[in-house]
Amino acid sequence: MGTKEIAIQDSQRVASLSLPQCVTLRLKWMGMVEGKRYLSHGLDPLTQTEIDNINFHIKLIEARLEPGDEREKLTMVAAMLVTFPGERMDETTVRARNHAYNMAVFDMPVWAVREAIRKWIRGKVSGIPLTEFKWAPWPAVLRKIAEDEVRPYQEALDNMRWVLEAKPLQDTLADLDTRGCA
User: Fold this and answer.
1) 137 and 170, same structural domain?
2) Residue 85: which domain range?
3) Does residue 138 sit in the same domain as residue 170?
4) Is the pLDDT of residue 16 over 50?
5) Any residues with CB less than 8 A from the CB of 109 and at least 6 apart, and which?
6) Alpha-carbon gap, residue 161 to 55, rounded angstroms
7) What pLDDT sits at residue 174?
8) Are residues 34 and 86 in the same domain?
9) What contacts 92, CB < 8 A, 6 or more positions away?
10) Are residues 146 and 157 in the same domain?
11) How many whole angstroms separate alpha carbon 4 and alpha carbon 164?
12) pLDDT of 172
């Protein structure tokens, strides 16, 4: 059907989202001039139904990208930290370390942090040698892994927003002409 499947996981279920066909079609025929995206000649403008469908998909993905419960993320991080060997820490060091991890993942979705920890524990993070998985990841590394989980959804959002904003080439050139760019 021409859709790009996107699977989103959380602890309760797996919800499958896909880019609407009108988005995948227009992405194939989208160009750029002076930093503005345009639709190639011959593509019909989006219908109101298509616009509503795209906005619906955007809202679904945005809801899944909400950071969620900070305590749940900290509980997962704490469980991960006690799983791996490390130096003995006093209470001040434990607080400082928890604070560092909190700063690293506070704005990430719970499911992305969970998936990052799961991948680390399984040794399934690409680009990291297996010998590194005997220690807990640094906070920045955990964040990077979580960001990698979020990236496909962020790209889907960007693509849908670009399609919503794109105008036919002649309208884009007219806009640029009024700004003195064309």
Assistant:
1) no
2) 70-150
3) no
4) no
5) 64, 65, 66, 67, 68, 146, 150
6) 9
7) 81
8) no
9) none
10) no
11) 17
12) 77
**Total number of residues shown for the chain:** 182
Q: What is the pTM of this model?
A: 0.79
Long-range (24+ apart) CB contacts under 8 A made by 10-18 are 10/64, 10/110, 10/111, 11/110, 11/111, 11/114, 15/60, 15/64, 17/57, 17/60, 17/61, 17/156, 18/57
Choose the most confident range, by mean pLDDT, from 2-11, 24-33, 110-119: 110-119
The Cα 131–Cα 100 span in angstroms is 23
Q: Pairing relation of β-strands 30-33 and 14-18?
A: unpaired
Helices (H), the chain: 21-28, 48-64, 70-83, 91-105, 110-122, 139-165, 169-179
State the chain's mean pLDDT as an integer: 85
Q: Does pLDDT of 123 surpass 50?
A: yes
Q: Are residues 102 and 42 in the same domain?
A: no
Tokens of 158: 């960007």
Does residue 98 sit in the same domain as residue 119?
Answer: yes
Q: Are 85 and 62 found together in one domain? A: no
